[in-house]
């Protein structure tokens, strides 16, 4: 590939005028390693900060706009309603109205049911379905997500709260604590969003969430099943229930497949509620012991601003519970977004949900977030914009104003059925199976969360999920992958010998690729691992009477970054190799790496002529030497008075106090010492 | 490079018999992506476990040996003394004896001084210098490390202990707690080593340790300076001290440069102690207020087994302090090994040090570890084996038996001077400067630890160091690097356009390389970032009236692994691209990745003919299409009744409940939606 040297050379000289770094290699067809001038520190910091906090570059369109326009665009960004409301028309409204009515008919019974999970009176859930969607409609980015109380958060909140205050005995206190928790959940979410810390949620792996959701669904489901067994002796209701359930299940599943049938699953709950309520009413089954909803308070949300604890012991509890519930809510939102493939600004969503819950906590609502079941229905009903949320909220408002009393006779059994069918959405066995197939460790995380939730508690399940996820990351950062490369016959391509069986090895040369950034967590390991490759290769060479290894080519292409510990490890590697008169060559270091090799002066220690653009170039460089025609020109190691090498001292004085003691280990066989 | 297709093809058929995976690409000169049959689950687990716990393969020589031989080799591995003692001769002993005497002369005064830092009587440090080195000589792997009490651990232990118990008022209790802490420090170290958890220490970055050590050194130094000022009014001692110091400093530095002078720095402390003690004795300066050591108990270590708290409130304190001190001791050992470029089995070293401290705690010693200053001297004095430690320990024993009383008149000022000169070894400004040059974030960690130790406390400094190190790792795992590639003119090489300015772009094709394993922590970001590259590229194309982007080649070479979230992100990416009729091509996936792409069926969704061995092949595959000659054959996206795409549902049903809502965001300009 000797072509185009001249013009490249020509161009290069011109670059070097632009102070571009270049490492010329006489034996590499004029193809040299390059790097641009290093960025200034502020520029670097700004760059990093941008990637950390604004990877999606949300305020992009504002760039280069006049102040006023910028403000407008920012408002639009903050309140998407200003954007989509323009060009809103009747057709869209029709779709939204239908969708809104449908989710309303689904959400009212669900709310009544979920409130029970949180040990609260039904109206508080309805309040939440009235206020929260309105707020979200203004600030939210997604048009599908249907906002309101959800099963998992409700039960989590219920569990956490009743650990602190008894929901029956000290009712008022419990309620106040609930509002407090909701308030801080909101503050927590809003803060995460505002400070662009959304990526924290990423530490909850997809696998863990799948497991967590499944576990929560089953826990809730089992809890509710009790609701049935309690009324076995009443044929009528049981019939209704069983009928409803037997209708429900297939429909619910049918809906998943056949989009035309979604409305059946959507209005089924309302119908079953109406029917069952009616039956209970005319038969007065409640007198005969059928558990019913009883009184639901009529009227709109009272203010609850005065009820939030901003001091006292409950403040801390509220904070803690709020943080958990808030995180939980965000996690659900994220999962939902993931499951429905949203390209949303997660941080902005959090800000919206946070604001929503803060306002909610001031108007007698408890934690609301995006609901799986309702959002799916909302989507299938063909909503166009968040207006469907507004419609739903209006319907709930009317319900609160007019018809809540009618729910008095609704039997709990039906609500139980509704909850069960709703949480079925959360169980994703298929996903779990894929996780098993793809990544066993992920599956462990998934199962850990699942079993933790089922056998211990929802909080613990969440904790387990986080811990396992973290363990995985820690293992990942302490153990990077390395691969021995071989040449694909008849090409200049070098690939992992384990992957490509036909690769051929170059006699006397070992090529190792390091497959990750070298940081302090894996620097030691990286060095040890490379030396192990070398050791194994040498032994193999010895056994097969092949030319002994004289060159180690370390391929740095995948090494996106390196830190001082990493450089340190390279220094040590270099010294270890020098002692055995093995030459170290580097191939294709990236921008970051080459910069750091330079600033640490390692580049001088290894020699500029030992850094190549491609593996092929590196191999060409050592091939003649490997074939034993000429000895390596590098000087042998300096040795101290005691006849022990001082190479490291020579190589890089400030890394060590004395000389490297690498040789010592040879004292016993357990350790090969380079 | 069309050559050798046939023989390759020939070979391949033979591989496929061996069930090797192969993805044939018609348009890639018969160079195809391959992968070996997937490992069985147990094999995979074993492999992973080995890399995590036995990366250095310590029991290697035992393999394939008869049982008895294995046991022998294991014993040798556990007690290296059996290894190096064979072939031990007089010459070696001479070297060891000299070295041993030298470090003994250094360690005795140091011990007396360090004991003060731990608020203990001098003999306890001497005890530690008698027992610990003996144990280490049997189990330790390093021949240079001189074992004994060290300044940093002593002061740390002192701080921690006096927070719990007053060292003056409740002396006995304090002593017992010290032994307890030492015991648990040992247990902790031994456990870490035994369970091969040494890599935990790697989370303390080199930079952090440099900072921590510097801070500790300065704190200790300043503390000791008080020692001088207290005796300014006494010409004689001051003279001795200042003389000693003025001799000392240059010598100490000289020693660093001129190896021949090491012995001066080595024996200087002892000489100054003897001289000053003598002067104080004849002048009775102590009567005039010169602080002196006073009584040192004569005789060997009494047993302290009965004194260790195995119950009661002190147990927990002992555990906590022990853990910290133990971690500290290990960290120092590691730093030392790093600074002196040891190739040691860190885990085995910990086991040795742990055993050493456990035995120590039963024989009235407090935490001992490898000492910087003494080890350096030991090395320079030309020790050959750990026998130098034995010699030292013998000398200390004699001291304990015979001459300890003579130290009665040793003025504290001299000890202060000795400590100061010893801790100077810990300050490594050069290293700090390199860290600053190489990696700014590391420098922050370094300074954080440094300032934390100086201005708050040693424990807090350690804590800060760990926290900053962790933050770095978390940022690293949430934000992977990506690069846009271009073709080097006249080659088939593709490189980062930011690094190589002369790269040329292929019209209509965007090539992005992902530079790290794709895990749940960075999967979302990876997808967003790739889409951002695409967005920017499309806009640039629009501005410059270039052919619009029709192909996205994602280069997976550096992606060593991918998990379910990663696959999920790829699925989402695929869908997003399909909507815009942009084709996704993958280049050079590794073994892990290709296996997981398969098991998740992603490979079917993207199409087997969309995966290439090299970027060049991928480019060739799309070049004709890119030039607009023929349209892509992939079918357009399926759309739902509402005219909204159901691509993801089609692509991979179990990832989502409904259809991707990707398109929605287009509602407002803040977000480009692929």
UniProtKB/TrEMBL annotation, chains A, B:
- Ranges for the region named Disordered are 1-37
Record flagged with keyword Cytoplasm = no
Domain of life, source organism: Eukaryota
The record gives the membrane topology as: Multi-pass membrane protein
Membrane-spanning ranges? 124-139, 145-162, 174-197, 203-222, 261-282, 350-369, 389-407, 414-436, 448-475
Q: Which residues form a coiled coil?
A: none
**GO annotations under biological process?**
transmembrane transport
Q: What is its main location?
A: membrane
> What is its subcellular localisation?
Membrane
Keywords, A to Z, come to: Membrane, Transmembrane, Transmembrane helix, Transport
Domain STAS stretches: 499-622
Q: Which InterPro entries match?
A: SLC26A/SulP_dom (IPR011547), SLC26A/SulP_fam (IPR001902), STAS_dom (IPR002645), STAS_dom_sf (IPR036513)
Keyword Transmembrane helix carried by entry: yes
Please provide, in alphabetical order, the Gene Ontology terms of the cellular component aspect for this entry: membrane
Task: Output the PROSITE patterns linked to this UniProt entry.
Answer: STAS
Pfam families reported in the protein's UniProt record: STAS, Sulfate_transp
Spell out the protein name for this chain: STAS domain-containing protein
| Phylogenetic classification of the source organism | Eukaryota, Viridiplantae, Streptophyta, Embryophyta, Tracheophyta
